[in-house]
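A quick word before the example. In earlier lectures we treated sequence and structure as two separate objects. From today on, think of them as two lines of the same record. Here is Origin recognition complex subunit 4 written that way.
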Amino acid sequence: MSKRTFDQIESSNIKDKVAKLTLEQTPKHAPHNIIKTHALLLARLNGIELPSQLYNLDSEYNTLYKLVKQTVTSGESNSCLLIGNRGTGKTALVRTVLRDLQKLQNEFCIVKLNGLTETNDRLALNEIARQLAIEQDQSDRSFTSFADSFDYLLSLLKSGDKSSLPVVFILDEFDLFAQHPKQALLYNLFDAAQSAQNPMAVIGLTCRLDTLDLLEKRVKSRFSHRQIYLFPSSNFGQFIEVAKGTLLLPSDEEENKAFNDSLEELFQNPIVNGILRRIFDLSKDIRMFHKICFPPVCKLSKTQPFLLAEDFLESSLVQRADSKTELLTGISLLELILIISMKKLLEKDVLSFNFQMVYDEYKDFMNETQVKGMGFGMKLYKRPVALKAFENLQMFELVCPTDVAGKCPKEYRMTKLMLEQAQVTEAVLKYNCPSMVKKWGTGGA
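And the structure line, produced from the sequence above:
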């Protein structure tokens, strides 16, 4: 029996790749502590390395640890469900518990499944069999059919006794497994756990509060009904501690003291506090902060050994950039003018329109600017050219039809703008266009 679990093998391979990549990206002249800082912080942000500690999860940790420990040390089968919003630490909690249990020198298998990738029972069973085969050093075993895979799985799970190697199943996106036909996978897993033959623990992770209601009666009757609820940070102070913990270096090394001291000052900076306050007010999802951290961490070097608030601000603005607004900065001037024409129609409470209505609005604007003598350098594009630009906007899905295309000519087919008026205004301000167009697009004309 292999002493290294599948989770350990996978984690070790990924860590080696990240360390190699980090060494390549780090400036050659950087000191050794900067290289280690790069590797550690990037691994944490990528979810490869666990945080130094779990914040505000002591009770949940103790409950899950005791439950899985009974399976690993005493051979008692268990099942439970972790329920909480995204970003509340469900995966980190499970991984921390498994890591601490591996220190007890008790051997056990870890099988990971995800409802997003194992979309049916066949894929899930093949993945279980594959991971268990790796555990038993039988990686050359092949499964030719669904029945073979299913029989092999059940033989492993139901032919053992309390002295057999424990198996811990981690079912991420648990609610998606409940949508499989007849819920055969969940039924067999819970039934095998309830049979008390081979020691096993089934841990489900989900963000849906109504997950139990999705289970069939026969599945629900075999589930232990243990539920552990995880909640986001209840106040802003706790959220700051969680965010700071992501970037803190181990305090047992003297060379990390200066970095940690600079981190304390960083989190007192109004810029960083403003970024965290916005995330806290919107979603309390710590992963949004992790995304912002990537560019500042990558900029660490010998000449810049500490994180800077200005880098966090720049990264935050990039993360907050609206994708559709950014798309508008690359369109032609004529296409922008047509979008402004649609915005003007929306201001008149015209929610759907065709090309002819948009072109008439554009023509009225051009005539008005010519009368005022302010249209120098601008010309009225002919109807076929404007129609081609309008079709380009449809291709970009910035404009979409509201009804099925029939025999109606394309210039008279009703459409709608897939942008908010504020998005159009923001794009016009960013676009390098004539002042008259900018004034018209922002409501000044």
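Notice the following. The chain has 21 helices and seven strands. We will return to this example when we discuss secondary structure assignment.
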